[in-house]
Backbone:
């Protein structure tokens, strides 16, 4: 698979919380947890389960930073 996105991070699924239409998939990426909100259908189509190895792809036009006052 080829993608134009450059922000591709290897990770492992640590948990999946299914709703009616959307699922939150928590992925461990180098000791940090990232959460992807995807459809339940996508979870099933991708065959995702806890322990699945995945690639987190981040495609965003803006990235914001904040500091404490």
Residues:
């Amino acid at each position: 698979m080829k993608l134009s996105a450059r922000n591709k991070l290897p990770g492992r699924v640590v948990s999946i919380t299914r709703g009616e239409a959307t699922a939150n998939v928590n992925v461990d990426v180098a000791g940090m947890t990232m959460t992807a909100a995807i459809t339940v259908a996508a979870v099933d189509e991708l065959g995702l389960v806890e322990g699945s190895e995945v690639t987190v792809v981040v495609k965003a036009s803006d990235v914001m930073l904040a500091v404490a006052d």
Remarks:
- Helices lie at 40-46.
- The longest strand covers residues 7-18.
- The chain is about 10% helix and 50% strand.
- The radius of gyration is 14 Å.
